[in-house]
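Recall the central idea of this unit: under ordinary conditions, the amino acid sequence of a chain determines the structure it adopts. In this exercise we apply that idea directly, starting from the sequence alone.
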Amino acid sequence: MVVQDSMDAPGVPLEPFLHQVGGHLSVLKYDEHTVCKPLISQEQRFYESLPLAMKRFTPQYKGTITVHLQKDSRGHLSLVANPLKESRGPFKVSTQSAAVAIWQTLQQTTSGGGALPLPQWQHTQRAHSLKESPATALLRSELHLKAHVPSLVEDVKGNQTERRSFNPWGLHCHQAHLSRLCTEYPENKRHRFLLLENVVSQYKHPCILDLKMGTRQHGDDASEEKKARHMRKCARSTSACLGARICGMQVYQTDKKHFLFKDKYYGRKLSVEGFRQALYQFLHDGTRFRTELLEPIQRQLRALLSVIRSQSSYRFYSSSLLIIYDGQETLQTPHGSNVVKVDIRMIDFAHTTYKGSWNEHTTYDGPDPGYIFGLENLIQIFQDIQEGE
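Accordingly, the structure predicted from this sequence is:
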């Protein structure tokens, strides 16, 4: 859809979300309490028909917005959101145009709210107008990034990841998207994005564990090649034997005043024992093990397990589970007890299916056995850690 008359309307400049620890497409910051992501019809319909019992375990759905790329007089690009006033049916954002738009967001200098300090690109043009091949444009872009943020590039490739003050995964996602850019720049197109609650906005130093849940990751609409690829990933990782694998995490280290990071490649290589040790590491702040977090985490996981068991026909293929707590020490009440804030949230429902869902390929009976298997194992591992096994 091409829109000409809204390009000059005031909007909200979008910034990279600094606490993205997993995923392959960037999550963007709309405001302090809201993030946005490219709209996928199946995910939108899930949020719009969400069972009441599940709402406490998912981000609050805040509607949709239109997003477009905006170029200023100097040729600098920004990704700008305009609230969607009209009521429209959902439609699917193409993977290619979304990748172009999201990558361009990272090419601007963002400001405020601790945004990622990336350089503004001085000569952002269509690759064909610069008479560059996509490969040449990619090389030029990577060299430009390396000249300005060498530590971020190194973070993705080496152990120095653990010594940086913010998560480099978002940059890694954007660099991957760059290789998919096409020569036609969709400057006059607009796209629909979902608005969702920023579930870590209340935390000073959000410690986040992103777990890919279930024993199956491919959706019903996956091609045979994609299905085979995801099945291999599950078989070679803890997804097959535990129903969960680590897709990313960040843990605040109070002794060094920075975050420790792990990505999905780290998670794929873990054995069962390695997975258990990673959960232990997730609760260690560099000085001590946060034993006070174990009980509330287990309590919320059990509550979620009860909810999932009650949802017949749902299959949460390729969705993730976030476990969140604050890296800042717990506060004490006037009575001397500690206030511990822990959050458990399900995210990413692009491949979730249920009876009555749009474009469903198969209707399933009963609750999701793979997700339940993963939750049961998580609870058991946290219990074993608590008991010192």
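Confidence is low (pLDDT under 50) at residues 1-8, 86-163, 174-185.
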